[in-house]
Amino acid sequence: MIFKLLQKIFGTQHERDIKKLRPIADEIKAHEPALLALSDKQLRAKTSEFRRRLGAGETLDDILPEAFALVKEACRRLYGKNWYVRGHEITWDMVHFDCQLIGGAVLHQGKIAEMATGEGKTLVATLPIYLNALAGKGVHLITVNDYLASRDREWMGPVYEFLGLSAGCLQQRMDSDERQEEYRADITSGTNSEFGFDYLRDNMSIHKERQVQRGHHYAIVDEVDSVLIDEARTPLIISGPVEQSNEQYEALAPAVDRLYHQQQRITKKLMDEAEPLIENGSEFEAGKKLLMVKKGSPKDKRFLALMENAKLQRLVHRTELDLMGDKLMGGKEESPIMKLVSDLYFTIDEKSNVADLTEKGRRTISSGKLDMFVLPEIDEEEHALDRELEGLRADKSLDYDIKLQREMELEAKRWQLYDRMNTVSQRIHAVSQLLRAYSLFERDVDYIVSDNKVVIVDEFTGRLMPSRRFSDGLHQALEAKERVKVGEANQTLATITLQNYYKMYDKLAGMTGTADTEAQEFHDIYKLDVVVVPTNRPLIRHNFSDCIYKTEREKFKAVINEVREMHKLGRPSLVGTISVEKSELLGKMLRTERIPHHILNAKYHEKEAEIVARAGQRGAVTIATNMAGRGTDIKLGEGIAKLGGLHIIGTERHESRRIDNQLRGRAGRQGDPGSSRFYISLEDDLMRLFGSDRIMKIMDRLGIEEDQPIEHSLVSRSIETAQKRVEAHNLEIRKHLLKYDDVMNKQREIIYAERQRSLDEDNLKEHMLEMVDDLLEEKMEEFVPPDTLPDEWNLRGLSDWLRRHLAILVRFDHVDLETVEAEHIFDRLQQAVRAAYDDRERRFGPETMREIERVAILRSVDSRWKDHLYAMDLLKEGIGLRAHGGKDPLVEYKHEGYNLFSEMIADVKLGAAEFLFRVQVGEPQKIQKKLEPKPQPAEATLTSHDSSSPGALSEAPKQPARLIAGDGSSKPARVPVKVGDKIGRNEPCPCGSGKKYKKCCGS
């Protein structure tokens, strides 16, 4: 109450923001008369003048009013000019309104401008893009697809070119030379995946001149909610094929298929038994039967029909709570729910998108050989190996070579244990993914089959995504289910989440028609504030209350009736669906009624532009799967405004209010009339999973019949509450992903900085010698441990290690153990290494040696980083189990991730040193060809590391990726490696003692 009163007095936050910005629009307009008097040539010369002023110390904010006025004047002078955009001739007819000037200022400030559909977001972007491009560091305009990137470049490019700036555009099939050219432009447009993959590819490049990006200065993200929220669970991944067979998916698919159909028969029988129990009033028994169906086949049609009854919904819910309560009272005995579902073959948790085998399912699918699907207990065997290794290392009587051979045999046994575990784990994983494919993924909803390939359907846009693949074997499982060719599994070679990619920009801004509902998330994750920019003309669209029906059948009848009425009136209507399947069903019903219409979904995406162009014409009926986000305005035909404009019909609420608002926003553009209404049934997924119980009570209380709708603001608020619950759930998933990726992000920054140093510096000799010194210090601690007597040192082992790994021979046969110090041993090692280094430099020549140093570091970093990413993937997959032991999985992930990273840093140094001291080059002039890496194709696929995410963008080089055994956490412990600034051994110790580091803390 007090909050609303304060708002009336002081205005909303958005109103206060706009009030502060209005004077900027007046300042901009004050510059217009002076610019009007300039010739085109003088106008163009202002760009050079602005750059000189920036060089002299002025800021972008200082020149903003004049720069914005300059862009506006350029648009005025281009008025009436023609040019081609995507093959169609257009006539330029746009000059900035005051509200667009305000929107431009919001974007320049690094905020999100929420602007209604049709308010000219693309034109608004020209203002801050021009201003920030003056800095000469490149501006990126990020769009949701290649078509819009190309369209915006061709549409707005002449404005920038008129003012003397260059504009480029990234497209999917471009090679690195073409990409470099586009990035050299003052302004570059492209999709988030193009920019993200270029960043990853640049950090896999072995030559600086092959890198394409030139930093992350300023970016504007179009449809920012779609990119930073809808796709935020989607990590960008460059992947390579794993050296493992996919035969298990094809081999196990028939067994899972049988299991699935046997389960369908069980749930049918349960429904047959439950219905008479309900009629007889045997509530508890009926509740148990229905709960079993819910656990085994939650999308069973008869079950869904019964769940329309609020009493039965409450019965199932109460039965589950009662059985859970029995478990709490029952101590350590098997859970009553587990007993209840023991007759099923598998269980499904629809909300968390997970399917699990029961004991009965395991017995059936393994033909009685339960160990096929039970992870072996290897702890005892591993502990026995550890004890044997400890005894072996403590045995001073054994010859070193014999001891080394025995150690290798024991380690080989350890890897055999891991291999056994890995084989069973992969089999369990394959069955789990197949169960998900059969039970939770629907053909023509989540994917389609085209040309004998499984093609993902984007849940937000309804577009086909032929270049994407689900990861973790899910795509292979879907292929096995549909009996098409099963593709290769992939291993991560480089990855970054979109969240962390966009955080690299010095300044980030965004624009969309719907951001305010997610304002808190934008602020928390990206530190972006949302400003709602007022419309140029008042919005007069009328949003009718939702119509709620008990059944989907009655809902669709009502939708057809409304479409028929609109068609008779001559008003165009846009019908939004959430899946290909529903759009096809509606199309069939409209054909039966002989109502002409067009369908825009994943199956008909080729006709998209043509269909959208007709959607605002007299009597047009367009069915669109998730029309929101398609980036094209629907313009009304002649006389349509007088009839009431475009009418929007939503056939189901999306889980996000923002997507619903985007659909509504297609009507009422630029002050046009329009209207919208959503039709909902209690069988819709959102209502069924999150909101129907309360609404069913209301409908029962009012005595509402099946074909009678309910329209009430209370019901609309209940639906909005359900959507808020889903949005909160999805936000937690995105935050969870970010927390885990933050661990990887810090590691990625260190690795990529090391790579970039290797590319930027001309001479890496000192850096390489420092890495070798680190290795020698580590080996000194292993073979010449501190606080031990000289006769306990293993000098022969140290000598053998140096010979095996670095091909350097150092003998300690004549060392006097009575007088020798560890420091003398280290100095001798250093001298031998430097002598070998100098010898190789004399043989190859300084220029070739510099190239060898560079490639040695890059190759070692890339190889170990790839294996580290795989180890981190494995760690993340199993880390959730730590919660059962009372440990925080995230804390454990950070701790073990650091240990793995420390091991990897040590391995990088060893790998680089081995390459440098062992590489053989016949003729120095051939070194470049010998060290040149294989080119990487730029073909993108998609993977998903998260069962709840739609998928992760992935790019797959075709060279094989080496697999590492185990999860990396079971290797023998290494001495921790400090990651940070290197302190030279002869530098003063940072502790302040005044001694050299090697004689103090470094000793």
Produce a short descriptive summary.
It comes from Abyssobacteria bacterium (strain SURF_5). This protein has 1003 residues and is α/β, with parallel strands linked by helices.
The helix tally amounts to 35
Q: What portion of residues is helical?
A: 40-55%
Rounded to the nearest angstrom, the radius of gyration is 33 Å
**What is the average per-residue confidence, as pLDDT, rounded to a whole number?**
80
Strand coverage percent: 5-15%
Strand segment tally? 25
Q: State the CATH class of the largest domain.
A: Alpha Beta
Number of domains: 5
Taking the sheet with the most strands, its summary is:
7 strands, parallel
Write structural notes for this entry.
Pfam families: P-loop_SecA, SEC-C, SecA_DEAD, SecA_PP_bind, SecA_SW. Residues 555-727 form the Helicase C-terminal domain. With 1003 residues, the chain is α/β, with parallel strands linked by helices. It folds into 5 domains: 13-241 and 499-532, P-loop containing nucleotide triphosphate hydrolases (Rossmann fold); 247-439, no CATH class; 447-488, no CATH class; 542-727, 3-Layer(aba) Sandwich (Rossmann fold); 761-933 and 973-999, Helical scaffold and wing domains of SecA (Orthogonal Bundle), CATH 1.10.3060.10. The strands form 6 sheets. A 7-stranded parallel sheet has the order 5-6-4-7-15-3-16, with helices on both faces. A hairpin with an 8-residue loop joins strand 24 and strand 25 (952-955). Helix 29 runs parallel beside helix 34. The termini are far apart.
